[in-house]
Amino acid sequence: MRYVSTRGAAPELDFGDVLLVGLATDGGLYVPTEVPPLPQDWDLERPYAELAAAVMWPYVEGSIERGTFDAVVADSYRTFDHPDVVPMRELDTGLYLAELFWGPTLAFKDVALQLVGRLFDHELGRRGDRVTVVGATSGDTGSAAIEALRDREAVDCFILHPHGRVSEVQRRQMTTVLADNVFNLAVDGTFDDCQDLVKAMFADEAFRGRFHLSAVNSINFARVLAQIVYYVTAAAWVRRHLGAATPVSFVVPTGNFGNVYAGHLARRAGLPVRRLVVASNANDILQRFFTTGTMTQTGVVPTLSPSMDIQVSSNLERLLWELHGGEGDAVDAFMRRFRDERTVTLDAERFRSLDEGFTAYRADDAACLEVMARYHRDHDVLVDPHTAVGLCAAEAHGYGVDRPLVVLATAHPAKFADAVQQATGVRPALPSRLADLLERPERYERVANDLDAVEAQVASRARLGH
Ligand SMILES: *Cc1c(COP(=O)(O)O)cnc(C)c1O
């Protein structure tokens, strides 16, 4: 499989390179040049890891041996707390939840990152190389990255969080990981300060080169790839459950659009998907784009579903590339206009072609609290506020046995216990393997909001650069 940049001016790469480079040199995102069809027996019941390896194999072939890949995939999903990895739950006739939150950090990013961390290690080991991953977190992505990279031979991982500004559970999910290659830096500053420090480290070329700085960010195609799989397992489950080959629609609580784009690739690969329903919170740039064709940037509003509080959905560029027939120049012009004018409109013909496969809804915090309370009362189920955005969209869209709908449940309710308690009066308990989280020993370094101080921490602890 070859991969090209959405902006058309970066070298073509194979999977191993795409995994390690992240962003293309022309500022674009890497996309596969073709979408291989699903295995013919995709709807057969079998272990998650087995189907996952079969679905992903054509995308990685040539960069890794099949036996090794199968073993890496199996190992990645062994860390999940449920034998089905992504179990399904019926909420109502024709309405189902796909529970993506049984991984180590209780949110759906584990499904991709558990695999990506291991693939990183494998590819770097093969090349005899190492990297130092640095990242900033406002709470959630830091723990998913740490769980993905802990104990990896070829990677050291430094995560900056704003001291005193993340919740205790969020902090402890990071700081109680005592692996030798994981370093938590609590910065005396805000999340923006942490992000600026990470950017400054990447901009410091001598430092970047000496420590082989790297990131595992949300535009990495390998993350999208791992997310194709659960669309397949969920559609297969619904087909077996209903005993009918009715196409399924998916509701996706959306931030960066990575998850929706994975569903789009599953559909292009032949999965019978009727609609992909984009569910936004009050940060509704995508909902406005999919209903009007105009994408306009506004300020971020904090909501009860913080992992969807974004201004710009970076993965949308991959869909735009397709809409523009793979013409990098046109994508480049579109994205430039958006960057310069903060608003850009898709032409009518392309907008119509979008309209065939996607629908979008928006739900604010009040609607989410109401839906959380009602599903608790009527269906005895606790959902987290991100999943609640999805349930609001599901109700707006409608469903039934003749038009089944799967809502992707992106976080465990205990991960957002305050919001769940506010809505339902019930405080969801952490799963048993995290039950003693509040008693576990922590390790982190407090550091000034200062580039030299942070770089000195990295330099004194990283295995590279000596
Ligand atoms: C990251 C995240 C999302 C948004 O996913 P995207 O791929 O960025 O659209 C939704 N819910 C939760 C809980 C998340 O962590």
Tag the structure with descriptive keywords:
466 residues; alpha/beta; Rossmann fold; 6-stranded mixed β-sheet; 5-stranded parallel β-sheet; globular; binds pyridoxal-5'-phosphate
Strand order of the biggest β-sheet: 3-4-14-9-10-13
Classified by CATH, the class of the domain at 83-103 and 222-424 is: Alpha Beta
Strand-residue fraction? 15-25%
Uncertain regions: pLDDT < 50 for 5+ in a row?
none
Count of helices?
18
The residue-averaged pLDDT reads 95
What would the principal axes of the Cα set say about the shape?
globular
Radius of gyration: 21 Å
Query: Main β-sheet: number of strands, strand sense, barrel status?
Result: 6 strands, mixed
- The end-to-end span amounts to 37 Å
Bound molecules: pyridoxal-5'-phosphate
Q: Which architecture of the domain at 83-103 and 222-424 does the CATH hierarchy give at level 2?
A: 3-Layer(aba) Sandwich
CATH topology group of the domain at 83-103 and 222-424: Rossmann fold
Number of extended strands: 15
Helix content: 40-55%
Structure class: alpha/beta
